[in-house]
Amino acid sequence: MNSCERPYPDLHEHLQSLKAQGLLLSIDRRIDKDSELHPLVRWQFVGGLAEKDRKAFLFTNITDGQGRRYEIPVVVGAIAANPQIYSIGMGAPVAEIGGKWQRAIANPIPPRLVDRGVCQEVVIEGEALSGAGKGLDLLPIPISTPGFDSAPTLTATNVITRDPETGVQNMGTYRAALKASDRLVLRMATRVGGAGGYLHYLSHQKRGERFMPCAIVLGCPPFVAFMGPQKLPIGMDEIEVAGGLAGAPIQVVRARSVPLLVPAESEIVIEGLIDTEFVEPEAPFGESHGHVALEEYNMPMQVSAITMRRDPVIPSYISQLAPSESSVIKKIAYEPLFLSHLRDALGIRGVKKVSLHEPLTGLLRVVIVTLERGMPRTEVWRALRSAAFFKGDCGKITIAVDDDIAPENADALLWALAYRANPVEDVAILPHRGEGHGPKRESEGGEDSTLLIDATMKGKMPPLALPKREYMERAKAIWEELGLPLLRPQEPWHGYSLGDWLQVWDEAASRAVRGLYLENGRISAKERRRGLKPETKFRPDRARPATERG
Ligand SMILES: Cc1cc2nc3c(=O)[nH]c(=O)nc-3n(C[C@H](O)[C@H](O)[C@H](O)COP(=O)(O)O)c2cc1C
Fold first, then answer.
1. Is residue 500 domain-resident?
2. Residue 78 confidence (pLDDT) above 60
């Protein structure tokens, strides 16, 4: 489906793949981009649908709050409404995405500069940028959180800036609020671990350069789009890692009015100069930490050109309260980085998985580290500390669990905390954490702290009290034969050993299910004792002391 010279899909081709797999809904009914579009897509995140049933929505008949009609369609959810959609863009099954990220980061491929790109089929410059119905005002940019947001805001961006010292470009997904047909205000996070583009802004300021060239790209080929939210080391050019994902150089063209290279196959490029001297109020805007970001000063950009394909599609990310498209993109991108840091860079071999908790908490606050059973306590704590401090803005609450605890299941986490952690010895609270991404002023003085909890088993425990797997499976077959309501098994749905269990008890249970309980009664009769307090432990395995906790 891709062009012969280009072994990676652009957004148009990606949408065709989604459609072919039943993952793209085309909405041809009139939709108001300012008040209806995002709320409609939001229902698939708050309406009780399973994650796998989420789709991308392509809106082809768009109006705005004033009844104006727009030619350009908008697509929401096309990059990551769910992991399956992400995996189509990644060209890899969901289970292999983490490995693909790791290989691409280790083997980046520099981009190829080409003379022409579809992203410049149409060029809007000069006078054509200013005035109602012109420039940015031509674009159907949706309002994300109607009722709270103060502007249509670009969300599915790849914002390109260049380090004035090294010449290396950075690409980040940052929001940008429309302010005029030729002006918008970008928000780049200034916190530690925030936006790479902000470091470029500071360098320009330091050099006394008032304006920073910037290109805001909408609708990149998916391999490039995935780079926007990815957190790579400072100074690493994301377009090279996109090449690593594609297995081939990404084609770039020179932007028309700023000295930057932009992906040739993108849908729309908004070029301009960011003022590093003046700031302008931006927001309120519903943020990915799940609260509304209140008004704050951010970076105004004067638009110098808008270039686009003849038939562009504008992507918009649904973000705000997790789960959302934004949290799916970040979860899939960030988790492999944590795993490889702990397991490969730090050599904590027993780390099986690192999970960023998604619903409501929005990934950055709660990190769950799944560990192999029986790891030395010192290694458990190394894993906890390393996960909590790998990024400046992630891991405020970091919990270590065993591999039978489903990290995405908050009930299971509470279960682990309730039975496997002793607060007085398994909890540490450390001061001096950056405030992180969240509503400001949640902690006095701009500092937060870190909560580490070792909720792994400290020794053997008795089995989980549910029928063993084989009995539950047999019963499930009967359930289905009876035509009872569809089952959706929830972990844990069968009992299993947690280490403290004896062969003789297995044998007794086996006799019991075969109807031979009288035999068990004969065996226990022989063990009758005089003078012991009821509830005194009895270990029929004579080889092991009766007091053993296992
Ligand atoms: C939908 C979405 C919106 C985002 N908005 C912003 C934003 O406005 N400002 C920001 O600094 N980061 C934002 N992020 C997070 C950054 O994209 C992320 O931190 C990324 O690593 C930035 O790239 P960089 O490290 O090259 O700066 C957003 C992420 C997503 C998925």
1. no
2. yes
Residue 114 has pLDDT above 90, yes or no: yes
**372 pLDDT more than 80:** yes
Q: Whose CA is nearest to atom 20 of ligand 1?
A: 229
Give the predicted TM-score (pTM) of the model: 0.93
Q: Name the residue at shortest CA distance from atom 4 of ligand 1.
A: 174
- Residue 196 near ligand 1, beta carbon < 6 Å: yes
Residues 159, 236 share a domain: yes
CATH number of 243's domain: 2.30.110.10
Q: Bridge-partner residues for 178, per DSSP?
A: 184
79 CB less than 6 Å from ligand 1?
Answer: no
Ligand 1 centroid from CA 195, angstroms: 6
Q: What's residue 115's pLDDT? A: 97
Residues 358, 297 share a domain: no
- Ligand 1 atom 22: residue of nearest CA: 172
* Domains: count for the chain: 2
Distance from Cα 491 to the centre of ligand 1, integer Å: 34
Same domain, 278 and 381: no
In a domain, 156, yes or no: yes
Ligand 1 close to Cβ of residue 144 (< 6 A)? no
Which of 8-22, 308-322, 437-451 shows the lowest mean pLDDT across its residues? 437-451
Note down the domain range covering 409.
Answer: 346-454
Q: What is the pLDDT of residues 192-228, one digit of tens each?
A: 888 999 999 999 999 999 999 999 999 999 999 999 9
Residue 441 has pLDDT above 70, yes or no: no
491 inside domain? no
57 SS3 class: strand
97 and 174, same domain (yes or no): yes
CA 227 vs CA 164, 212, 241, 457, 491: distances in Å: 21, 21, 8, 38, 34
What backbone torsions phi and psi does residue 289 show, to the nearest 5 degrees?
-85, 0
Round to whole Å and give the CA distance between 90 and 79.
Answer: 9
